[in-house]
Every structure is written in C-alpha cells, then in structure tokens.
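ok here's the first one, seq then struct tokens
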Amino acid sequence: MTRNTRSLKVLEDYTRDVGKGIARIDYDSMDSLGASTGDIIEIKGKRRTVAKCLPLDPSDAGKGIVRIDRLIRHNAKIRIGQYVLVKQVTLNDAQSMKVFSTKKITLDSEQYDYAQDDVKGHPIMMGDKIELSFFDEKSEFEVRRINPSPAAVMTAKTKIIFLNTK
C-alpha cells in the first residue's frame, strides 16, 4: 500500500448525506491521502467508484472508518463492515453522460433541468448506478458512458443523454 492510500472500514452514511455522492473520513485520513474537504476520492472494494470527500463528525474521528451511502457501497461492491482502499484523485468536469434505464423516460425541459441539478457536483464513474430526481420521484440509472472517461464530475453544463430499453 502506498503512502497516499488508506484502508478504511465501511460504515453506513449519515442520513443527511444519502444520495449526495459523499464519503466521510476523518482529518487524519485526509491528511495522509493529501486530500482536503471537497476533493474527490476513489473508493476501491471489489470495484472502483468515486465520491466527494467530507469530514466525519468529531465523534467518529480516529476510528479508521469511511461513511458512505447504499448507492456508493453498491457501486464499490462492498458491504457495511468490510474494508476499502481509499485514495485522492483528480477528475475533470463531465462534458456528457449517457445513462440507461429499464423504464421509459420522457422528460420535458423542466424535469431535465431538475434531474441535472440533482447530480451537479457529484463525481461519477462509468458503470456506476445513480439516482436522479424528477421532482418527487427518484429513478435509478446506470452510467453507460461518461466523457471524459472513466470518471468525471457532473456540472450544470454536463449534457445527460437518456437511453431506454423501450
């Protein structure tokens, strides 16, 4: 293991972080990774994924843990209580992203803008599952392509292309 990689035990996220693409680690772990609040970290379980790094609550400091939500755990193919390797990475802004859904999606411009705003600032890796909100309704999608590949950060200018099976 290199100096800029940490092995951390996975715990459930804080409720306030659900669906926001956030991984919380303590300041000592951030320092050892060369990461700061808001930087992007790669989380490697059986699969790699990415998340935005934020600090743990002080009560969790020094425990060697990372708190991540169900979707990030799914993308990394790990469970609560398992260990992952974490490292700081630099990603470019996403130009475009193609997402796949098994159900037919037809969006008007207001719904598209709402969905795009929902993932603005989220780091995403090709092959990840993501949830997009369309007002009060959430739908799950798989990222089929992202430019630049294999991972990037979503912005207000990222073009999202929706693919359907129907």
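and now the second one, same deal
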Amino acid sequence: MTSLLLLASCAARPPPPRVPDVQQGPPLGVLAGGEERLAPTTPRETLAVETSVVTPPPPPQRSAPTWSTIYALYFAPNTEGGCGRSKACHAAEMSDAGSSYAWLEQRGYIAGPRSPLVSTSNSCLRWFGGNMPPHGKPNPHAAEDLSAWAASGAPNN
C-alpha cells in the first residue's frame, strides 16, 4: 500500500517544464542589406558581425618630371630617342632642352595638357604609336613620364 501511495503522489504532481535545448528570441536587428537576423538557433551558431573594410589610401603620386629631365632621359644625345645627336635628322633643332621644346612647340606637338606629343593618335613618338625614333621600341617609362609632364600643363622647365 505504501508503494501505491508513493505512485499516486508522483502522478498527482505535474512534471517539471521541459526546457528546450535552444531558445529562439526575437529578431536582434537588421543587418546590411535589410536582412533580419534571429537569435542563434544552435549552440554553435554565432551572430554575424558586420565589419567595415578599411581601404588604405592610394600611394602618393609622384610629381611630373620637368621638360629638362625628359629631354635628358629620352631625347638628348646617347639616349634611346637620341634626337639631338650629331648627324641625326633633328640634331640642330633638338640639341638641348630649350631648343627642342621651342621646335616641338612651333610644330604643334606641345600644347599644354592635350599636347599631340603624348597622343596615341597624333604623336610622332613610337612610345605613343608614332614612328620616332626610327627602329625604337615601346618604352612604358618614357610614355608615363611624358604623359605626366603633359598632364601638368607641359611646361618648359
């Protein structure tokens, strides 16, 4: 009889509430793009954390070379262009930086930022698709320097 009483008393008591393994809560908020994110649904799930990507600033632009530098690197005697070497076609006109600038400007090749000297459709220079220097090769550094110089206004400096 004692065991029946114990069983009867156990049956009369309601079982303890069952706690779910994982509880879902209300939405935690809205993520980028309007997506709503609920509380984690499994113990191992973690919440998405929005992070912003920091883009480093671009490297500082180097200043444009001067006309004198361009002449010394690409047009003077003993350079790839060699426009000023003796017995060359343009020896008299391109013997130094000042006279070469004046000659090219007079011929319409130097005209500020839109100078035809650096145009891929109007330049005489092989570096931009022209035919000078004869038997020359593409030179990306020369093209870059001349383009930067022209973009700065193509000054005679």
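notes on #2: Strands lie at 29-30, 36-37. The helical segments are 2-12, 67-75, 97-106, 140-151.
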